[in-house]
Amino acid sequence: MPQESQESREEIVQVVDGRMVAPDHPVIPFIEGDGTGPDIWRAARHVFDAAVAKAYGGRRAVRWLEVYAGEKAYRLTGSWLPEETLETIKRYRVAIKGPLTTPVGGGIRSLNVALRQDLDLYACIRPVRWYRGVPSPVRHPELVDMVIFRENTEDVYAGIEWPAGSPEAERILQFARDSGHPVHPGSGVGVKPISAFGSKRLVRRAITWALEHGRKSVTLVHKGNIMKYTEGAFRDWGYELAEEEFGDRVVREDQLASAAASDGRLVIKDRIADNMFQQVLLRPSEYDVVATPNLNGDYLSDAVAAQVGGIGMAPGANVGDEYAVFEATHGTAPKYANQDKVNPGSVILSGCMMFEQIGWPEVSRLIQEALERTISEGVVTYDLARNLEHAREVRTSEFAQAVVDRL
To answer: pTM of whole model > 0.85?
Structure first.
């Protein structure tokens, strides 16, 4: 690999002792996204630039670099995910993106999944908390303060599947029948890989984060009572990792006489996936950091987000050991494209996660405080306004400006 010049080193986020460290003027690639993506990206960028200027008085600034994926990439290059986009993200290490089109059924594979797999972004991290003023369907949304670590590269999202009637599916069905597992002929087939390697590195990141941020527990969420050799193994490997690598800094819940007996140690516990959906509604304050295989984490993060205002207010990060891509967690909402209408909160809060990741926490704090003030004063986009009395409904760009005015 050619040696980077001094100028390029000053533009690139570096990984030092496992942590991302940004220079004062980093280049950060962005993908504006499909559908409503351009609207929410413009709004978010306005907030980001204003917050960085406010936090550092001009000493620091982001140099944004557009890269392409999704419909815009296809129009410009004939590829939904150009190799140049992946190489640019690898060069600069950190990127942020809006929502991308994913066909249901046939067509291209999910671009979000492709990015995660091609860059080995094995941890999908979704913090879920309530911001004052956001309407909620539950009585006490303030009790929700969870960070969900969802494994990103394995499970059914690995995309290993074959259509019904294909020779590959028929061979696997025949193998299943020969092994004593009756399966209906003509079934489509998918394979659900879950490995010790993938499970342990995800749980390692969740426990490390919990210890660094003073959290009280990590809960392993799984369906191991039925899928014993995949999700049950995820649970077992998670406990093994905790005991082997974190020693007396952690303690299993089943080894405690009472919660007070943890003596300040991080409590490791597990819950069956279906029961966890009930738990986060009835006893959300008992859950802190959650580690889960891919599909469970996808469902659970959206369900918990609903308690604090919906996925329009839910940020997301896809993080690996070398790269990180931050994203709006909702879809493209094409019927609202170019209407300056939708809530940019998800991508704005994802940017807050990005600034924390690169070592600029002051920016994240300013944005979150200003966003909360904006919403608590009733200045909101249509999705929140319809559930708030006396709200002042504003457009996407107007919401961004309202946040900037309150920095």
So the answer is: yes
